[in-house]
Amino acid sequence: MQEVYEFLKKCGTYYIATVDGDQPRVRPFGTIDMFEGKLYIQTGKPKDCTKQIMKNPKVEICGMAGGEWIRVACTLVPDERIEPQVHMLDNYPSLKSRYAPGDGVNIVFYMKDATATISSFTAEPKVIKF
Predict the structure, then answer these.
(1) Which of 61, 68, 103, 105 would be 72's cystine partner, CB 3.0–4.6 Å?
(2) Is the pTM of this model over 0.85?
């Protein structure tokens, strides 16, 4: 899991695919945090992305860095506790102008049942499950 965290951090921007009815939706994300042994992302509760995740929590994340790419298939689980929200915002202080822990707008999700695959054109894929 540490390797997945470091890879997504290195990407800076990665993309999350969700499902909206029968239509896939992909959007850029930039938050990744490790808290209490789990990988977390953050977004806003009112966003369509959050509504789609709540309806179908299975997502796929994709990012590229240094000639390699990662795909993470997982289930996102909302964590309503204040502590992971504080941890996330402490690691992304630029978000504090839009979000606050417990404000009813900020939401964090952790990855569950994840399978990450790191690939390149020059090496065999590496699979990491967590």
Answers:
(1) 61
(2) yes
